[in-house]
Specification:
Mean pLDDT: 85
Structural class: mainly alpha
Strand content: 5-15%
Largest sheet: 2 strands, parallel
Helix content: 55-70%
Radius of gyration: 17 Å
Order of helices and strands: HEHEHHH
């Protein structure tokens, strides 16, 4: 199966599963997804089709993918040496054990 068709089928399966669960009756829904950029633009349309409003939904990037993005960021900005590794380790620890507002303020921009 072509990759794009596989993702479309997976997305449709997710939607059907959420309908079967009765997600429309939930007080809130926690969406834990990876950080792939193609996912986030599809979420508003999915919520609309499911009859959910944005106030019912909490969107969260899973820790593994968030940390992976921090590693890539450190290598792009700082380089592939000890300073990048040290920054990444500190940022990952902050992400894991402290609030995200602290993590975003730790990014050296």
């Amino acid at each position: 199966m072509e990759p794009s068709l596989m993702w479309q089928a997976s997305w449709l399966y997710l939607e059907m599963y959420l309908v079967k669960l009765g997600v429309v009756h939930a007080s809130f829904v926690l969406l834990v997804v990876e950080g792939a950029p193609w996912i986030w633009p599809r979420i508003p349309a999915l919520l609309k089709r499911l009859g959910l409003c944005t106030e019912q939904v909490i969107e969260l990037v899973d820790f593994y993918h968030a940390a992976e993005n921090l590693r890539e960021f450190s290598q792009l900005v700082i380089g592939k040496h000890k300073q990048a590794k040290a920054w990444f380790e500190k940022a990952r620890s902050t992400l894991r054990y402290k609030s995200t507002s602290t993590t975003s303020s730790a990014i050296p921009c």
